[in-house]
């Protein structure tokens, strides 16, 4: 099963309950999603990643 992007995770889950996992994924971000405006360290976690 393909892992979900942060974009999908953020839309479908309550971030407050997953904040530790989420914080780990978004700390020290190198990419931002131009579609959703989310940031992540790994471009694989975003649906439209652009390097920042
Ligand atoms: Zn996105």
Give your account of this protein's structure.
- With 52 residues, the chain is an alpha+beta fold.
- The protein has one domain.
- It has two helices and three strands; from the N terminus they run ααβββ.
- It has a three-stranded antiparallel beta sheet with strand order 2-1-3, with no helix packed on it.
- The longest helix has 8 residues.
- The radius of gyration is 10 Å and the shape is globular.
- The model has no long low-confidence stretch (mean pLDDT 86).
- It binds zinc ion.
- The site of zinc ion has 8 residues, from loops.
The largest beta-sheet arranges its strands as 2-1-3
Question: What does the overall shape look like?
Answer: globular
What is the mean pLDDT? 86
Helix count, per DSSP?
2
**N-to-C SSE string, H for helix and E for strand:** HHEEE
Largest sheet at a glance? 3 strands, antiparallel
Strand content: 15-25%
* Total strands: 3
Q: Low-confidence runs (pLDDT<50, min 5 residues)?
A: none
Bound molecules: zinc ion
Distance, first to last CA: 28 Å
Helix content: 25-40%
Domains (count): 1
Structural class of the secondary structure composition?
alpha+beta
Rg, Cα atoms, Å: 10 Å
């Amino acid at each position: 099963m393909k892992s979900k992007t942060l974009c999908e995770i953020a839309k479908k889950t309550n971030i407050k309950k997953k904040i530790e996992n989420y914080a780990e994924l978004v700390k020290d971000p190198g990419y931002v999603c131009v579609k959703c405006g989310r940031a992540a360290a790994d471009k694989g976690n975003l649906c439209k990643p652009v390097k920042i």
